[in-house]
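Anyone able to model this chain together with FHN?
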Amino acid sequence: MTKKTLLSVLLCMAFLTQGMAQVEKNERIPLKHGAHRTGRRTDADMQRWREYGLGQFIHWGVYAIPGGVWNGKTYTGASEWIRSWKEMPKDVYDNLYKQFNPTRFDAKRWAKQAKEMGARYMIFTTKHHDGFCMWPSKYTDYTVAHSPYKKDIVKEMVDAYTAEGIDVYLYFSIIDWSHPGYLSGGNINSPQVKRAFQSGGGVNPFETKEKEEKYEEFKAFTRNQLLELLDNYPAIKGLWFDGSWDVAWVRNAPWVDSLGIELREKHPGLIIGSRFRSDEYGNRHTDANGYLIGDYDQRYERSLPTNLAETKGFDWDCVMTIPENQWGYHRDWSWTYVKTPYELIEMAVKANSLDGNFVINFGPDGDGNIRKEEAETAKEIGKWMSKNGTAIYGTHHSVLEKQDWGYSTQKGDHIYLSVFNKPMNNIVRIKLPRNNHKDMIYVITKAEILSTKETVRINGKGQPGTYYRDKSGSSYYDLIIPKKLQKSTEPFVIVIELKEINKGSLEAYQQALT
Ligand code: FHN
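re: yes, here you go
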């Protein structure tokens, strides 16, 4: 790389890492509880996070027992929310834990399956909105210890996944329908509520002093449980929060901020995403000045950015359901669209081509089985990842712009072209970027199929005029898909080597192509 090109890459990276929507220093809104940092985390733990590429999410709790069906009726909301359905009697739901006995649960088997799928991290629901704890918390009786199963499920999960080399993150809902002090103050995303917070006043969800005092008990309880999780499971890498749109939580932003500091002090390196807290004006994910709150952007679930600019240069991940919007186990998938393995793989590659991680959710049943459809999906993804994972792990966005045949990722001077839309003419046309240095040009010096190492023919190799440039100075190459792959319906990866050579030197160009 020339010095000039390197400089422009560095400038571009500096721009991206600072984020784009942020305001000039002298125009910044003074915040007491805004972001604690303006750029990305640069430590080894976060670097490791950045390189995961693919993860697994598991939603498991007592909601797996009804599995989205009650009294012969099917709940079409997310199955883990069934308690809030009018057809589901609350007291019945709150006693389901007395039947929770997943004798088929085998954390080692799940961890092995996740490893085979290619997951490098896993997020596990310790407690969802219903408040049921999958670990024997000493701060409530509504836990697995009081179910017929009795054993500590969180421990089994942390141990089994850690043993497989998969990093563990604990999901924790700050909404807890089981705690008497918990109060749902509404949703900060409602425009009216947001406006009230942004004008500095906020909304007070506590109608009485008594309710406010009770919420203080809930805060103490939440803090205790979080410290307990860090004490019990020191191997975990991070906490994954949910429910923080809740107005009561947002109203307590200063306290939440200090709690975050305490958790980080207790567990150095801890990774917490942007769903944990808001600034004092109720801004979530990014603060009033556009800086990311937390270590990475958790985004709106099940959504991928469309381009790099949209990521604002933040670290980010995307959590995705296999059916439309079912996180917990739903026994009936007949009415919902179910994503195919290739669809999920494409999303994973797209996420990585935009510098994000992709996390696929699983919802085991009440006995502890991962459903057949999910197991098959994991297997198919694993098959593809074992051949093509190099295009994902440890890569970042490439210097190529988005092109019709698929997505590209890069590591050093290797660019991975993941082809999802195979052209009918079996020619993958690659547009290389314009080189910012006027005497230099990018050339492809090598192209092969990642999984088989089969050489990919570069059309008209070595002849003048075999590549062409458009008016903007971008050059194009035609890569001919090898015969065997022409009939294949599987997405594949071509790895190319990209070099810079002196434009005037055709000789050098020809050599570069040999
Ligand atoms: O309400 C939850 C939902 O059940 C699920 O846990 C997802 C996962 O991202 N989070 C919440 C909705 O944002």
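The first helix runs from residue 3 to 18.
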